[in-house]
User: Fold this.
Amino acid sequence: MFSDSFKVKGSPPLGLAMATFGFFIGFAAVSLYGPVAKNLKEILGLSGFLLGLLVAAPNLTGSLLRIPFAAWVDKVGGKIPLATLLVLSVIGMAGLSTMLYIYYPDLKPWMYWLILFFGFLSGCGIATFSVGIAQTAYWFPESKQGFALGMYAGIGNLAPGIFGMILPFALKEIGLTNSYILWFGFLLIGTVIYILFAKDAPYFQLIKAGVPREEAVRRAKELGQELIPTGSLIESLKNSARHVETWALVALYFTSFGGFLALTGWFIVFWVQSYDMEVKHAGLLMAFGFSLLASVIRIFGGWVSDKIGGELVSIIAFSMVLVGAVTVIIGGNTNFAVSLTGEILMGAGMGIANGAVFKLVPKYVPHATGGAAGWVGGLGAFGGFVVPPILGLFVQYQGVAGYANGFIVYVVLAMSAITISALLWRAYGKEINKPIEE
Assistant:
């Protein structure tokens, strides 16, 4: 039996702030192993493939868990799913920190697999993206969701760049083990703060208080909540999977956002190994020349897509990625200015493409947008796990030259993305803002 005196706690600004905070501290795991890859490679005697797999490890769980945890939000609200992902990430960081404290630098080759496992666990925090999107959307009316979600994604996406920049300085000042212990402490405290202060949107609070659904819907709407869960996300996933356009967008996002995740970790390795650069300087180049740039310019990508169409913007953006990848290859390990220019072009291109691709989701799959967004966001981000081991193979067989030559992977991906975007533009490009009928 519920009480009429039950009062909903929290507010839209608090809902946005806590969802963003939770995503920020979890998403930082993208940079988990990039800054220490050189140390671990030398100590454990890793091949190029195993090195790439280690750098990519957090992105496996961070991508695949997005879909089921997004579905869970519609059942229980955002707080429990997001907190669960953060707790799993805390467990991973606790295991990694403890292992490093006991054994580093006397790590044994077999410990690689344990470090890899802790990377998978720590990467659970990356999956908070899809949960926080839904948690934020439920708090805000439709007229304000664009701004709220822009703030959420914009601020949260800065985390890998910021952590990738800070960690190398911490490594130099306090050492590898203490740096990860400090990161564990930050994640643990952040998780506790989230659990203490995050609140679900009104509907979910009322349901948990025992309020019948119809009454909960009425009272939630009185409090300004327009978006009410229908429990139909699974059907939406099935429906959207029948559209070939959904899989076209998955392929595009695999290159743009999956590529972003992969290179956020890999570019630090590239600069350290190709140019014998200090890790702290490599972290700064990755952050300002790629990760932060891609995060900020994503907003522009979405805005310009409203003006000229997401298909055309994608063609332009992936052309930038293509030119950037070729430029990195030309720079090799001898021309720093050329290599840096390539990195900047790739960062800008990927960021703009990220904004453009998600603008196309509701256009192509208007009756199953949530499901399509789940496929695109989850499977597209899977590129962050797939690509680094392939880049590592080039290093394994070509030595130092392989760090630059491996970017041929992005030449192929970019050309494929340009082709897909051009086909979409030819079929649908003239209808910039008009949803396609099923």
User: Anything to note?
Assistant: The longest helix spans residues 244-275. Residues 232-429 form a domain with the Growth Hormone; Chain: A; fold (CATH 1.20.1250.20).
